[in-house]
Amino acid sequence: MIKRTIKEQIVQSIHNKPVTLVTGARQVGKSTLCYEMKKEYGFHYVSLDDLRERDQAIRDPELFLQLHPCPLIIDEIQYAPKLFDVIEATVNREKLEKGENSGMFILTGSQAYELMHGVSQSMAGRVAIVRMSPLSTREIYGCSEQKFEIDPSVSSLRSKDFTLGVRDLFSLIVRGMYPELHANPHLDSASFYSNYVDTYLERDVSQIIRLKEKLQFQNFMEALASLTGEELVYDTLAKAVGVSVNTIKSWISVLVAGDIIYLLQPYNELSITKRIVKRPKIYFNDTGLACYLARLNNEDVLMNSIFKGRYVETYIVNEIRKSFRNNGLQDRFFFYRDNNQNEIDLVYVDQGTLHFVECKSGVDYSSKDIKAFKQLANSAYPIGASCIVCNTPTFYSIAKGVYALPITSI
């Protein structure tokens, strides 16, 4: 079984909060990880994917909790939002009667909108929210995972933990990072993603919006997959899919709620407001799903396609974000692009210092490849070490405080 870095967050939460909510896209491993907690910490377990249990939870949530006592794991809780109020009353009563109510519930769900609505309405202050991603590469290779740092000594050590050749990288990008695909290497990825999309449309999308044309929504997802790593232009998508701009905006929010995609916002400071683009960039949270939707069927097809660079960028940005998320750290990630076409793939603030990251699929780079970094030289933040993350086997210096780092150093 693949060890998940984020498990430590759940362990800490059950010792300090009455309710732990584990959210993330379908198939990222929420149920598997929580089932580990069942065995290790003596939780009872119930899944609302079971229609009989779901019906009971919806019809009589109080009786449901009597039949399933604490400590309790409730899987896919978004199917029974009435449970939130009853859980709130239960944890409040436990606190009043016993003075201690930590570790009572672990809740999981794959629809962020429904979950967050229930949490904000009923359990603010009583719940720790743990956001779970697909596997990181370091998890797949069984290596320890700390947050990404642009530090030559740290990067050099981390890059030696495992080897990832160029072809291996593209193979990994195409296969994707869902746990089932790596627990079972013989599983056909196309079949996995076909079933994944069907299940997502039937169970998750239909819970939020009534889709008369599911094929049209799937066409929308396929069009979007070809744009991962690009600016999100609603008009262009609307024309490509044949629906209104408002429909595209609604569908984008559905994919964000399901943790299928995320929107990277442009970096902004008062001194640069007039010259920056205002549109976000779109990224799929899993490159394998995006490759399936874009019909990039294997590493050779991807390596020889016009999508090569943006899929490598998506992979690198995802891995950096996972390193923060999996360690319980808030990520403040942005991108920079101005009206003169200067662009920085990733801009982030860490401990009050601004860092820049370029994501590349090649090996050899020089100072001309980081000219855009100068556009933020007058930032209100101090500028820290920056880098190009690429397929170089070893790190090297590009300019003062700027390095080329191997992808394996993430």
Classify the beta-strand content into a percent band. 15-25%
What is the helix tally? 17
| Percent helix range | 40-55%
User: How many E-type strands?
Assistant: 14
Mass-distribution shape: globular
How does the major sheet shape up? Answer: 6 strands, mixed
For the biggest β-sheet, the strand order reads: 9-10-11-12-14-13
Rg estimate, integer Å: 22 Å
What is the SS-derived class? alpha/beta
> Uncertain runs with pLDDT below 50, 5 residues or more?
none
Quote the average pLDDT.
Answer: 91
- First and last CA, distance: 22 Å
Write the layout of secondary structure elements.
Layout: H1 7-16, E1 19-23, H2 30-41, E2 44-47, H3 51-59, H4 61-67, E3 72-75, H5 83-98, E4 105-109, H6 112-122, E5 127-131, H7 137-140, H8 152-158, H9 166-175, H10 179-183, H11 189-208, H12 214-225, E6 230-231, H13 234-241, H14 245-257, E7 261-264, E8 281-284, H15 287-293, H16 299-303, H17 308-325, E9 333-337, E10 343-350, E11 353-359, E12 386-390, E13 396-399, E14 402-406
Parallel strand pairs: 1-4, 1-5, 2-3, 3-4, 11-12, 12-14
Antiparallel strand pairs: 6-8, 7-8, 9-10, 10-11, 13-14
Descriptive notes:
The protein has 410 residues and is α/β, with parallel strands linked by helices. The protein contains 17 helices and 14 strands. It has helices at 7-16, 30-41, 51-59, 61-67, 83-98, 112-122, 137-140, 152-158, 166-175, 179-183, 189-208, 214-225, 234-241, 245-257, 287-293, 299-303, 308-325, and strands at 19-23, 44-47, 72-75, 105-109, 127-131, 230-231, 261-264, 281-284, 333-337, 343-350, 353-359, 386-390, 396-399, 402-406. It has a six-stranded mixed beta sheet with strand order 9-10-11-12-14-13, covered by helices on one side. It has a five-stranded parallel beta sheet with strand order 2-3-4-1-5, sandwiched between helices. Strands 6-8-7 form a three-stranded antiparallel beta sheet. A hairpin with a 2-residue loop joins strand 13 and strand 14. The longest helix is centred in the middle third of the chain and has 20 residues, at 189-208. The chain is globular.
